[in-house]
Protein: Cadherin-like domain-containing protein
Organism: Georhizobium profundi
Amino acid sequence: MDERLFLNRWQNTNPTAAKKRFEETEGGGRMQTMAMMPFIAVGLFTALRKLFGNEAEAFSSDRPLRDVAEAVPEPQSDPLSFETDIARIAQIASSLNQLSADISAGIGARISFLGQTGDAVAFEAGLRAAGGGSLRPLKPGKTGRANDNHVEGTPSPRKVKPEERPAKRRDDDDGKEKTPNRAPTLAGPVSLKDSLVNQAIVIAAADLLVGASDADGDVLTIQDLSVSSGTITQTAPGKWLYTPAYDYVGEVIFTYKISDGKTSVQQVAYSDLDYEDPDIIGTNGNDILIGTPDPDRMFGLDGDDLIYGRAQNDTLFGGNGNDRLYGEDGDDTLFGGFGDDMLFGGRGNDRLFGEEGNDKLFGGEGDDRLSGDAGHDHLDGGEGKDHLDGGIGDDVLDGGTEDDILLGGLGNDLARGGDGADLIRVGAGDDVAEGGAGDDVIGGEAGDDYLSGGDGADEISGGDGADQLSGDAGDDFLAGDAGNDTLDGVEGHDELTGGAGDDALSGGNGNDDLSGDAGDDVLDGGEGRDTIDGGEGVDVILAGAGDDVAEGGAGDDVIEGQAGDDELSGGDGADEISGGDGADQLSGDAGDDVLSGDAGDDVIDGGIGNDEIDGGEGHDTIDGGEGADVILAGAGDDVAEGGAGDDVIEGQAGDDELSGGDGADEISGGDGADQLSGDAGDDVLSGDAGDDVIDGGIGNDEIDGGEGHDTIDGGEGVDVILAGAGDDVAEGGAGDDVIEGQAGDDELSGGDGADEIYGGDGADQLSGDAGDDVLAGDAGDDVIDGGIGDDQIDGGEGHDTIDGGDGADQLSGDAGDDVLAGDAGDDVIDGGTGDDTLSGGTGADELIGGEGDDSLDGGEGADVILAGFGDDVADGGSGDDVIEGNEGDDVLSGGTGNDCVDGGAGDDLIRGGAGGDLLLGAEGDDVIEGGDGNDTVNGGEGADTLSGDEGDDVLIGGAGDDLMAGGKGEDVLHAGLGDDVLDGGEGGDILHGDEGNDVVDGGAGDDVIDGGEGADVLVGSAGDDIVSGGEGGDVITGGDGADMLYGDEGDDIFIAISEDGDDLIIGGSGVDTYDLSQIVADVLVDLPGGFVQSLDTGYDEVFDIENVRGGRGNDWLVADDSVNVFTGGYGNDTFVFRKLRDLTNEGGPRDEITDFTVGDRIDFSRLSGPEGQLFVDIAGATFTEAGSVGFRHERFGDRDYTIVSGTTDSDPDAEFELALLGHHQLTREDFILAARDIDAQA
């Protein structure tokens, strides 16, 4: 039978193994066989080269399967037999362990060498290596092909004996002998392997043809191959890939047909499928280890490993790194090792040990034991009766289902018992324990613990520390023990004992017994009929729902009956008792007690002392008893009597009858239609809600009607009346009274005297009558009449209508869209917030718009108008008015008179009107019109538009990019900061650009223009103007007229236009340019002579001009002794240099011509040297005689220049140079030169 060699690796990389072969002679025939050469003694990689060809072939993943015929033959000197092969292979048996270990270390993979049948050989069959490998031999006389899964064999050719050959017979047709076909013969079923490892393997045709032969020598093939378990896939001719079913163990039957091409026979092959069960050891990297169906021991070693135990009782060791261990089926034991591990027990009674690190342990199904050990661990028992021990660290323990034991250990732990009767002990630390369902026993030990029983009858003890205990559902027993504990029975009939310390006890639902014991305790019975004893100390008792009995005992206690018909007694001390819902009986006994009946028809006796009594809801009967009592009758139709003393009585809800009796009493009716009687004395009476009737009686009373439509009579004396909410009617009567209408549409009258009346909310009617009154409408749309006298009126909120009447009144609209009229007198009117309308009337009034978009009319007189915030409209009317717009986009008009108008912030529109006005834009982009008269206009900040209109105006732009127009008259314009545009308009104006890059146009008239700082554009326009550029590089145009233009500092440009008059141009400091590019006529520019002349421009005088731009005609440009830059422009231009110093520039840079073209000429005809030598010819780049001109080409930066040079003597060195921009090939036609016999001056 054929044998196969398996190389099992973690990743299947398809390496190629080249095999050595040798020849063996038998009976004159040639047979081929294959064997592994001895290799162990020469070391690991030498052995790999001999076994597989070389290391790269053995373990590379990109080499295809290779036939044995491609391997390099290695002939042997002596014939060998299979027995000799076995002997040689046996020599390596003792070294297989080391080989397997070396290979494992070298490639990081598991290595095994497996035989197919396990036939007996000369060495120990199935020898195990340290890496998990075994070696079994190939059958003799086999050749084949190798890859990383197997070496397939092919039977050697066998000689057929004559007697085995079939008989021949002659064919009648052609006379030749024919041999009849014989079917293949079988030796019986094929046993593929004693025990296949459960993994994908390659099956070769030779494996399935074992024992098959064909008498005719026909080639045998396999057909219709199928398997009883798993899958079989043909990957190449004569080769199949078998993949076992997952977790299948047992016999596998291969069914197929063997065919000789004519006839086929049925055959079967058998194999048992099982698992290896050695230790499974990973590497120091990140491994994935998968166990077998048998019990495994698996070691992850270093790295973040993923380990699956699969079936049986496995032991998994994560080792170092953050590992994930899955026990799966069986009673497994998992050790996380170092690192933050995740352990999953799976099915079975597992044991999980997190060991070092912050681990997560999941027991899964079964009765598991989980131990977190060191670190902040999370333990989840899952199903079954589990035992969880958090160990050291802040752990989370989840018991899961059934009866679990949870031990928190050291640290601040969270333990959740889950279902079942659990035992939880959280240990030292600030722990949280939740029993969950079942009758649990929970103990807290030291630390401030939170312990919750969950469902079931639980027993919980807090131990030392300030603990929180919650019984949840069930009849629980809770003991706080030492410390200031919090106990909550939640549901059920619970028994709670606070123990020592200041405890908080809550019974929850059920009939509970609560005992505070020693300390200042808080006890809450909750629902049910509870019995509560506060015990010693200053206790707080909440009886809760139900008919409860509560006693405070000694001390100043606080008792609340809450729901139910309760019996509450404070005992000695100054107690606070509240009955809550129900018909309660409250007894304060001795002491200054505080008693509250709350809901129900209660009977309350304050007893002796100065008590505070609150009847609460219900029809209560209250007796304050002796002392100065405070009685709150509460809801319901109550009857309350203060008795002797200065009492305080509040009827609260209901139609109450309240009497203070003698003394200075304070009585308030509360809700309902109450009857209040102050009787004698200076009383304080308040009707509160309801339509009350209040009689102050004799004395100086304070009355508050409260809500409802009340009727109030202050009676005799100086009274203070608060009408309250509702549509009230109040009369102060005689005396200087104070009346407040408060809410509602009230009718309030002060009567005689200096009264103070306040309308409050609602649309009120206020009448001051005679006297100097103070009236305030407050909220609502009020109507207020001050009447006779100097009144102070404030409309308050709402859209009010106010008439000051006669006298010097002060009116304030406050909030709302108000209408205010001062009428006669010098009034002060303030609109307040809202869109108001203010009218001053006659007199010198002061109008303040306030917030909102207001309309203000000063009327007659010299008024002061402050428009305020908002987009306001203000008109001063007649008189010399002062108007301020403040914030907002305002429209302001001074009217007639010499007004002062300040727009303030915002984009304002300001009109001065008739008269000499002062108009200020201030902040914002303002539009200001001076109107008639000599106005002063200042735009202030922002991009303003200013116009003087008629008159001699002064306009100041201020900050911002302003647009200014002087209009008619002789105006003065100051641009100020920013890039401004100025237009002088008609008249002889003075315009100052000031700072910024300004555009200034003098307009018609003889103007004076000063550009100031910045690069300005200045235009004189019509008239004989004086224009000064100031600092910066300015552009100046004189316009029509005989202008005087001064460049001042900076590199200025003077622009000539057609028919611009005979101008005087002085460039000033800097390099200045006279630009004639718009001129069509021929221009003569004589810089040394100081004039420019043409038919278009007339005769201009020019000084301190360095550069010239010619026009569109044939221009003559004459250089002076400064550095000149000439641009000829269009036309055939002539550049004239009269003197040598005009070119030498006293040692300065060269003169330059920027646009020399064909037709232009350079005139040296009047140029002579020191000895009077004239230029007569052009000589090239060097000079051989006096009076020669030459040129050369140079490059400066990215520009080409043609340098013209010349000499007046025989010295070859040039005496001057002229630069022409561009590369020019000059000829004599480009120059005007004097002949030798011509007088230089002719």
Notes: The domain at 181-274 is CATH 2.60.40.10 (Immunoglobulin-like). The radius of gyration is 60 Å. The CA atoms of residues 1189 and 1206 lie 4 Å apart.
